[in-house]
Amino acid sequence: MSKKNFFVKYIKTINYFINNLLEKNLNKLNFKNLTYLFKNNKIILTFVALFVIFISYLLLPTFYNHEDISNKLKNELQNQFDLNFKFSENIKYNIFPKPHFIITKSILSYDKNKISEIKELKIFISIDNLQSIKNIKIKDLIIENANFNLNSNNYNFFLKPLKKNFKDGNLIIKNINIFFRNLENEVLFINNISNAKYYFDPKEIKNILDANNEIFNLPYSIKIFDDKIEKKIHSKINIESLRLKIDNQTSYADKNYLGLSEINLINTKSLFEYKLKNNLFEFKFFDKLQNSEFSYVGKFNFKPFYSNITGNTNKLDLSPLFSSNAIIKELLKTEILNNKNIDFNLIVAGNNIKEFDDFKNVLLKSKIQEGLVDIDQSKITWKNNIDFEFLDSLIFVKEGKLILDSNVEISINNSNELYKFLLTPKNLRKKISKVNVNFTYLFDEKNIKVNNIRIDGKTLEKSKYSYDDILLKENNLQNKIYFKNLLNEVIKNYAG
Fold first, then answer.
1. What is the pTM assigned to this prediction?
2. Is the separation of the CB atoms in 108 and 114 below 8 Å?
3. How far apart are the C-alpha atoms of 260 and 477, rounded to whole Å?
4. Helix (H) or strand (E) holding 10
5. Is the peptide bond before 304 cis (omega within 30 degrees of 0)?
6. What pLDDT digit, counting tens, does each position of 89-100 carry?
7. 370 three-state secondary structure
8. Which one, of 138, 194, 145, lies nearest residue 170 by Cα?
9. For the residues of 259-275, what is the DSSP string, one character each?
10. Residues of 265-280 as b/e, b for ≥16 C-beta within 10 angstroms?
């Protein structure tokens, strides 16, 4: 018999003896008995011996063959979590705080393609049956400080483990970055997971993924579970900074995916219905009020990619594009849409602009091609007296900055009403019919650079005005006063 087999057999015997001893005596233990124990040196020595034996038992995995334990751990991770790892030769074993293996520079693959190199992988094992490699069971797996590269072919990687069994152990993720790339390997956006856990909830009788994330500098939490009986994926998303909550259910009973999302934003509730069949995604988006404030319908075709969205709303909210941490602004800056294969069309009609009730009859037309957002023919009316139309207008990214370059044609239906609003002196009130303004707007700086102004065909000389660099204020009232003064200066220069 080899020394290793003899030692294992010896430890098994001692382990059996300890279990029987503890079972017989622990129930009899009280304060008096405990005092007696400490007075009796033989008993103390016995406990010391038992402690040493227990530690020796925990150290048994250090005697395992390196290749054998490596293969065993890889097989267990594949079976238990559906994760395909390739380990380096650097495998360490620790018993504190719980028995676990530490593996450095492991490689994680999906469909035979490398998606991540993990600096440190911790695999916690059960303390039962450590005498044999065959009986090793993984309790918890911890992945931390890693970068993942995903694309349209493997975007569902983090959903796959939900179909496995987490009754015997958890999968924990800490501080990882997910780089979503296009098929040309260009980074579209980055999602950070600060903390995530896959676990089995005995009350829900479901596997659950609970994660804290950040995308576009926007923290959010998500909770996902897979109902295998009803064949539905449930998810809950919470973005506290936006006061936004999304409760979603997606049915995958057949090849068609049907879904319904309930969206709570501040004090509003809306529904998002969608269907995915083959490469076509169709949706309806509307609020739950009896008199609907908005409704949108649209479709996306993924291969080849094109989209068409139309909508109507009572109040058009432009804050997702123009506010300080606007999500659409940040999305455009990532250049995720800078792809020659993307064809995106959006048409939205609105009665008013939110927080700017004087602006009416909004028509927003946008078209995205090769990363450029074309808003030509977008229109808006101010107090039924002035019509604005955007011509030759593009939103684009240059040197990491989001920029709007635009020509606006302003048709003045009643110049007298405009002068009354501006409190323009009567001696400067010349009739004006049409104004053309060419300007550049920097979204992050909230800065407007006026390039050219023409009034009824007459170009104003730049040397005669000081309003070529306009910095918008945070307060709407301040902006109102600011623009009144600027417009009066333009009128004064035009009047001579």
1. 0.66
2. yes
3. 40
4. helix 3-25
5. yes
6. 788 998 888 899
7. coil
8. 138
9. EEEEEEETTEEEEEEEE
10. eeeeebebebebeeee
Dist CA 318 CA 300 (whole Å): 23
pLDDT at 397 over 50: yes
Q: To which residue do tokens 């989001």 refer?
A: 402
What average pLDDT does the chain have?
Answer: 84
Mean pLDDT of 10-16: 50
Angle at 121 between CA 116 and CA 127, to 5 degrees: 145
d(CA 186, CA 412): 47
From the list 294, 276, 277, the residue with the least C-alpha distance to 285 is: 294
Read off the tokens for 174.
């800490």
Given a cut of 70, whether residue 36 has pLDDT beyond it is no
Q: Which residue has the higher pLDDT, 342 or 140?
A: 140
Structure tokens of 196? Answer: 């995530």
What is the CA angle 360-362-363, rounded to 5?
A: 160
Instruction: For the chain, report the end-to-end CA distance as a whole number of angstroms.
Output: 111
Q: Are 496 and 429 in contact (CB under 8 A)?
A: no
Cα–Cα distance measured from residue 222 to residue 216, given in angstroms and rounded to the nearest whole number = 16
Q: What's the gap between Cα 370 and its chain centre?
A: 24
**Per-residue pLDDT, 66:** 83
Task: Provide the 10 A C-beta neighbour count for residue 104.
Answer: 14
How is residue 416 written in tokens?
Answer: 């007298």
What is the C-alpha radius of gyration for the chain, rounded to an integer number of angstroms?
33
268-273 long-range Cβ contacts below 8 angstroms, 24+ apart: 268/293, 270/294
Residues 145 and 176: beta-carbon distance below 8 Å: yes
List beta partners, residue 197: 172, 210
Angstrom distance (rounded) from CA 325 to CA 220: 14
Rounded distance between C-alpha atoms, residue 207 and residue 205, angstroms? 7
- pLDDT tens digit sequence for 420-455: 988 889 888 899 999 999 999 999 898 999 988 999
Torsion, Cα 13 15 19 24, to 10 degrees, reads 50
As a whole number of angstroms, the distance between CA 456 and CA 491 comes to 12
